[in-house]
Specification:
By secondary structure, this protein is mostly helical. It has 5 helices and no strands. The protein is elongated and about 110 Å long.
């Protein structure tokens, strides 16, 4: 009698374990299907946000082939970078006025690539702004930025050749 009871209990326990395993498998299957749908909805909403931003941008009066790229001074560009709210946290009508300024066009392109991108608020002079940027950037990002600044400086020097020939003195380096 006890052997029959143990066999019944064992078979009942086996059936319950099998049902739990099947239940877990079904749950995993449905969660996997839902995650795919959530990813599709996320991509669709980002696309719709970008389309709304593009519609909100004023159209240029000149054809694209006749437009010239504006030359921006580094201190001016660094000074005018306001804090840009994340596209998914703020409604589109609160994000501020949209214009054809170079800064706005660049921000729009950067936000298209990554809607989560934030822009720091830089209101001090150039040196203080650069120090604040250096503290907020990773070492690798800062090195890339320094490289870009060097290339920008070379471009500016090539654009405006100096009439007064002066000997170039390299920056002193500390002894390591």
């Amino acid at each position: 009698r006890s052997l029959l009871g143990r066999k019944a209990a064992l078979s009942t326990l086996s059936i319950l374990v099998a049902l739990l395993i099947v239940g877990q498998a079904v749950t995993v299957y449905f969660v996997y299907q839902q995650s795919g749908q959530i990813n599709k909805l996320t991509k669709t909403s980002q696309t719709l946000q970008l389309q709304a931003l593009q519609k909100k941008m004023p159209s240029s009066s000149k054809p694209a082939s006749k437009m010239r790229m504006a030359m921006v001074n580094m201190p001016r560009a660094m000074k005018d970078l306001p804090l840009s709210p994340s596209a998914d946290r703020m409604p589109l009508d609160i994000m501020g006025p949209v214009s054809n300024k170079t800064e706005d066009q660049v921000k729009h392109l950067l936000l298209q690539a990554d809607p989560q991108k934030m822009f720091p608020e830089l209101k001090d002079n150039l040196m203080d702004n650069l120090k604040r940027l250096k503290k907020s950037m990773t070492a690798m990002d800062w090195k890339a930025f320094e490289s870009w600044m060097h290339k920008w400086l070379l471009f500016e020097l090539a654009k405006n050749p100096q009439k007064n020939e002066k000997k170039v003195i390299p920056a002193e380096r500390g002894i390591a």
